Structures are given as structure tokens and as C-alpha cells.
Amino acid sequence: MPIVFQGRRRAGCQLAVEFLDPDGNNLEIYWGIDLVGTGGDVRPPSEWRQAKTLEDAVANPVAGQRMPPITPA
Predict the structure, then answer these.
(1) Whose CA is closest to 58, among 26, 14, 19?
(2) Are 18 and 4 in contact (CB under 8 A)?
(3) CA distance linking residue 64 with residue 48, whole number of Å
(4) CA-CA distance, 26 to 36, in Å (whole number)?
(5) What is the sign, positive or negative, of the torsion defined by CA atoms of 40, 14, 11, 44?
(6) Tens digit of each residue's pLDDT (9 = 90 or more) over 16-40
(7) Domain range annotation of the chain
(8) Over pLDDT 70: what percentage of the chain?
């Protein structure tokens, strides 16, 4: 499946990879989505950080977001 997008976009700052399936539908797999607090607190726009690649998104995380450790198989 062709990759349409990879990296980080949108206000939620989640890491994502988006594929185009054989029928032309977008399939997005994401990790680290922000949650809205019980008081309605959300990430301020000053912390939104776009990344055009997964490598850039992982190398430059947003506040409070870290990648889990990767262990070799």
C-alpha cells in the first residue's frame, strides 16, 4: 500500500502513518494522541509541532510525549 503521509500533524500532535488501500481509502495508524483533560484542558497551539517524517517526529517530540523503548527481536 502506498504511504500517503508519515510524521506528525494536526493539533493532537500524534505520530501517524497514513496509507492508501487498494480501494482508494485512507487508513491512518497513529500513536500518542493527546487526551482532553476533565477540565477541558488541551495542548496549547504554541506546543503544536508538525513533522514531515517519522524520523523527525521521533527525534523532536512534543512536550510530554516519548517513544517507548525499542528492543531488538
Answers:
(1) 14
(2) yes
(3) 12
(4) 25
(5) positive
(6) 888 998 998 999 888 888 888 899 8
(7) 3-59
(8) 96
What's the alpha-carbon Rg for the chain, to the nearest Å? 14
What cell was used for 34? 493527546
Cell numbers for 72, please give them.
Answer: 531488538
Lowest mean pLDDT segment, chosen from 30-34, 41-45, 53-57, 69-73: 69-73
* 3 state SS for the chain: CCEEEEEECCCCCCEEEEEECCCCCEEEEEECCCCCCCCCCCCCHHHCCCECCHHHHHHCCCCCCCCCCCCCC
Average pLDDT, integer, range 51-73: 82
Cell numbers 508538525 correspond to 50
